[in-house]
Amino acid sequence: MSYHPTGDAAHPDPIHDEQAIDQLWPDASVEVGRGRLNTVIHRLRSALDLPPAALRRTAGVLVLDPTGWSIDLFEVRAATRAGAGDRDRLEAVRRIRGNLCHIQFPYDDHLAVHRRALATELARTIVEIERESPEAADELAGLRVLLDPDGDLPR
After folding, report:
1. What is the C-alpha to C-alpha distance for residues 72 and 97, in angstroms, rounded to an integer?
2. Does residue 106 have a pLDDT over 60?
3. Rounded to an integer, what distance in angstroms lies between the CA atom of residue 30 and that of residue 120?
4. Could you tell me if residue 23 is inside a domain?
5. What integer is the mean pLDDT of 19-23?
6. What is the dihedral sign for C-alpha 133, 134, 139, 144?
7. Is 44 within a domain?
8. Are 88 and 79 within 8 A, CB to CB?
């Protein structure tokens, strides 16, 4: 799994291109944003091996059809929230394999804010798991580095 920083803004209802562009690139013109949106859609379809109908643009509307697949970011976030069982939280953080936007859009301040918030949330979860299950610390050290290459998230 790779995490995407605007996953908390995603929802199952179709949204207009302009809404997606405003959320992802608030300073971009609609013309520039449409090109970027096409690139993101292509990369997501390729990275996730999605059929075209699963994520598509139709008449200026972005449509996500999760039939037959799940959105693991939502599952991970639900499992890492307070009240989840220790095993569920550990299994959730084990699913993280990379950061979808650290290379494609490292310069985009809007995405950086969301990426930072999600990384902070996950880093706090890792710290909690390590406190409760010290035997998991070695396994989670690599994930901590992936989420926090500069070492400035909460410990």
Report:
1. 12
2. no
3. 31
4. yes
5. 89
6. positive
7. yes
8. yes
CA 95 to chain centre: 12
Task: Collapse the DSSP code of 86 into the 3-class scheme (helix H, G, I; strand E, B; otherwise coil) and give the result.
Answer: helix
Helix (H) or strand (E) holding 64: strand 61-64
What's the rounded Cα separation, in Å, for the pair 127 and 8?
Answer: 22
Q: Rounded to an integer, what is the distance from CA 4 to the centroid of its chain? A: 2
Nearest to 108 by CA among 23, 41, 45, 46: 23
Would 152 be classed as within a structural domain?
no
Number of C-beta neighbours around residue 7 at 10 A: 16
Last residue of a domain, one of 31, 48, 64: 64
* Total number of domains in the chain: 2
pLDDT tens digit string along 41-77?
888 888 888 888 888 888 889 888 877 776 677 777 7
Indicate if the alpha-carbon torsion angle 13, 79, 76, 115 is positive or negative.
Answer: positive
Whole-angstrom distance, CA of residue 38 vs CA of residue 20: 11
Start-end of H helices in 51-151: 72-80, 86-94, 109-132, 137-147
Q: Select from 47, 58, 66 the least CA-distant residue to 104.
A: 47
Q: What residues make up the domain containing 115?
A: 72-147
Q: Quick check: 127 and 140 in contact, CB under 8 A? A: no
